[in-house]
Fold this sequence. Notes:
The protein has helices at residues 3-9, 29-37, 61-67, 69-75, 93-105, 115-127, 131-143, 150-159, 163-175, 177-180, 191-197, 207-220, 227-230, 240-250, 255-267, and strands at residues 15-19, 23-27, 48-52, 55-59, 86-88, 288-293, 296-314, 324-330, 337-343, 350-366, 379-384. The protein is α+β, with helices and mostly antiparallel strands. Strands 6, 7, 8, 9, 10 and 11 form a six-stranded antiparallel sheet that branches. The chain is elongated. One of its GO terms (biological process) is adult locomotory behavior.
Amino acid sequence: MNNQDTSTSSSGGAKKRRSTENGPVHIFGAGALADMDRLCMNELFSDVSFLVEDELLPAHRLILAARCEHFRKMFDGGMAESKKRQIRLNVPLKAFKVILGYFYSGKLTVDTLDEDAIFEVLGLSICFGLHELESALAIQLHESLSVGNVCSILNNAVLVNHAQLTMNCLQFMDNIATVLVKHDSFLLLSKESLEALLPRNTFAGDELNIFQALHNWSRHNQSVDIKSLVSLVRLPLIAVKDLVGAVRKSGIVESETILEAIDKAIESCNLPYRASERLGLDVANGASRLLITMNEMVLNLSCCCIINTIIACSLGSTLVLKYSYDVEVSCNMKHWVAVGKLIFPSHATTMQIRFAPMPARFIRISQPDRGRKDILKEVFLIATLLNSNVVIPQ
Length: 394
């Protein structure tokens, strides 16, 4: 029988790989894994068993040692378990069975597991150093994020100290901040999760709504000291009428702290604004245009956003090219920061200015030359965040 016949008649759909030195090699992976899988929790040739939650699970040292460094060290070293036929493990039973199935079959079966059980498997994966399994579970949880489950997933990610999944949850929350602070699931956040979420400059919800959400959270978690969490709310961003109204009446903020917030809001031009980070998106698209005077125009963005690039486009008028334009940004229409001057080169219809990333809700463009009073009607602005290595200003 030639090689082609052998490949065709073999069970399991063998894969054929050619080697210049040793000739063709046939790989029967599916059949081998199926045979291995039949040994999972099977007493046949078992030489060790694990007592987990009062259930005895037979296993094979050689297979576990080959598949996992944690068990290799357990069976081939000075650990007491290396000589025991029965080993007690203080781990979740259902999760450990999933891990054993992975060792023997190379498969991850979590379809029947709820979210808590998946995190138990993730915790064991981290404990046993199973990076492949850990990565697959973290990706699955990331892809399943929703407003209804992100809080519980964040709690568990913080609990098992999974940095990447924690960051994925926080970034997802940034994008749904306005909805999240009014959602019932917000009340499920742990104190540790709130300590990770509330300091984020990119968690760009309305500050009064954030405060009210935290107040509601405290009433559902009365045993938790709320003072350290309240300090993470940016009180100067809340309107004075709400500070002396809703915030004062809540009873969780001292009067002196409220007065300090009012003073800072009045005196400071550098308030700790929260702002959305929308990399590469034109946040000026759809912004309302306010013509303050014939020489001054303001764009009102839909929300406070981090930007570092403003592009001006002429809408076809050659008159636009003859003038220069001052550009400023603001978060409150009171304190303005100059970010550059637009001067169109000869025959160019677009001009770009770059500056350090900063939060902006309003963009003001003015044409100082009083001789022309209608030029700004011919200028179109694009505002965006272009670079990926963003340092958000405090």
